[in-house]
## 1
Amino acid sequence: MTARLPTTPSAPGVLRLVGATLVDGTGAAPLPDAEVELRDGVVVYAGPRRAPAPGVAVADLTGTWLLPGFIDTHVHLSMVPTAPEEQRARFPEEDVLEVAEVLRATLDAGVTTARDLDGLTPGYRNAVARGTVAGPRLHLAIAMLSPTGGHADPVRPNGSLPAWAVRPGMPAPGVVDTDDDVVRTVRTLLRTGADAIKVSTSGGVGSPTDDPDDVGITEEQVRLVVSLVGERGGRPVTAHALTDSAARSAVLGGASSIEHGYDLSDETIALMVERGTALVPTLSTLLRELDPATASAERLRHRAALHRRGIDSVRRAVAAGVPVALGTDAGVHPHGRNLAELARLVQVGLTPLEAVTAGTLQGARLLGLEARLGSVEAGKEADLVVSRVDPLVDIGALADAANVRAVLQSGRVVKDLNGLVPTAS
Ligand SMILES: [Zn+2]
């Protein structure tokens, strides 16, 4: 598969980070008093602290924990909560600049790579790569595929479009019914620069005219999507799937991951283990609290039932050994608290160390970028997070961006609350 490494400007020179406890993302035990040497933005050494080298810039990170930059594999960075009236009155620049703020907040949270699964145009990816705007390296689905009236179809029953669905510079939403539609839409998305293809094999919550139990993209069409991307070097295909049959269609059709998966049967879980299909449970969105002041009693009841079913489904998948990657669906809920998902993952059975791996190396694998991202190892991009809390003791504390003291991307310091990291020499 030709996964493209989204670049970010790198820091030239040599820098040693010493004294921190290294949690490297591979699942290895933490290494106290570690040393990580960066050269031109790439890790060239990660291990026990060595004798000092004269003339090399050193950051003393004693008393902190050093982790890989996190990867959020499911975000919607262009989704910002705005009242419909206000949204209609906006100039496009207001939206663009607000997305820039969201990119910054996500980076400050410790996310150095993000996969946007509907909504963001490649213009943002290019701007981050160029260094025009600070943000996570971006992998994009651009738009998702569903049938007319399905999760990807924004049209209301009276034919009108909500303001959020008017997206200048974007190809049309991925509404597909026939196989010909699938072929044309997938090829258009690839031409526009998609790094992944997202399909909805079930209906959704929150789209205007569908229901989670609706059938979306069929197993045969998922297979068609996989074969189409195969003709162009391959890309991950991921499926929004809220029901068991939707997840099964996606797994059998060859999707590389399932988003949500709140109703998986043991049979589907066994198939996922057998095929190595990853699960991105987006627990931050499943477990978000609805406002009892505005949500109806029926909606609250329905939500409580979905919580129970979803947690049970994800717990069984984790226990069976399905690979899990961190994804939050940020945008559906506030941006900048992405690492709150780590504690949620511990709630469904991962150890804190496994949750860190789900948020780093597993995400890199899902994106096809594990050769360059996802762990602190020689040869990888120096995407790093400095935490002032021990993530293995209090993983919930990482939800608060104030505990993420510093963030590096390809060795470049993009956040440094305490001035911990000097310029490379
Ligand atoms: Zn989503």
Note: Residues 74, 76, 117, 329 surround zinc ion (CB under 6 Å).
## 2
Amino acid sequence: MTVSRRLAAAMLVVPFVLVSCSDGGDDSASSATPTDAAPCPVAPVDVVVSVDQWGDVVTELGGACTNVTTLLASSSVDPHDYEPSPADAAKFEGARLVVINGGHYDEWAGKLAAGSAPDAPVVDAVRISEGEAGHGDGADEAGQKGHDDDAANPHVWYSPTAVTGVADAVTAELSEIAPDAADYFAERRSAFATSLQPYDDAIAAIKQSASGKTYAATEAVFDEMAAAVGLQNKTPAGYQTASNNESDPSPADLDAFITLLQDKGVDVLIYNTQTEGSVPEQIRAAAESASVPVVEVTETVAPGTDSFEAWQVAQLTSLAEALGVSV
Ligand SMILES: [Zn+2]
């Protein structure tokens, strides 16, 4: 029932998107992004991005000076389980810059880039979030797919410092590839910073008023942002480990989660709407019956959202409301 209500809501949003596209003629047109982009002084740079969480950011930064191809641009595909096709390998050919999330999240993309666009620099968001250079030869250590319980959380587009770091790295690489457009890219970078202001403000407001409040989450997707706003993660450890390994929690782990909610042991439940199944539904039902507010988040850019910033700000606004913070 939850799922069908959500799908209905998503469908209602679609006509609005179509209207704003025909209006602006440019999908970056919104109140938060600049509409009067300067013309590009060079031939556009071909950029390939693995997943849509970064695709929109790169498009905003590159503007008319880039042709951005995003491989997984649909929210119906789970990047964790994605198996690339030969057609995906072909999409990397001719790329002059590659942007991947990194870690084990989209390992396939790093491999395809190394094979099809070996000379293109690779911006790697996970490496940036770990304070490493974030670009380089793409040589990754061998490892299994998906989440590792001993690996860093790969959902780094939820880390405000990673977003800024990736934006800086993309701008630096583009400026090196097309030096005659360096001023153009610098302008786009500063416009992106301006459009991130509502996001920065929402994070600061929540951090100021709700620091130390607690949450539990059906999945770790939002954990980096929750930490950035000062929330404490009270997700039962057994459940979180199972979830990070993409396995089902044991009945005892699920019971611990449900008991936590029944006891109102957290201030909010963070719920990833892109994961379906009886486990998240039972958790949600327990939160609702205990009147623990449920904050919906998505792994990939939410359908009907016209920019990375709009997507993030909508979620932060829901979180603020659930925590009783005005933003
Ligand atoms: Zn995930």
Note: The first strand starts at residue 45 and ends at 51.
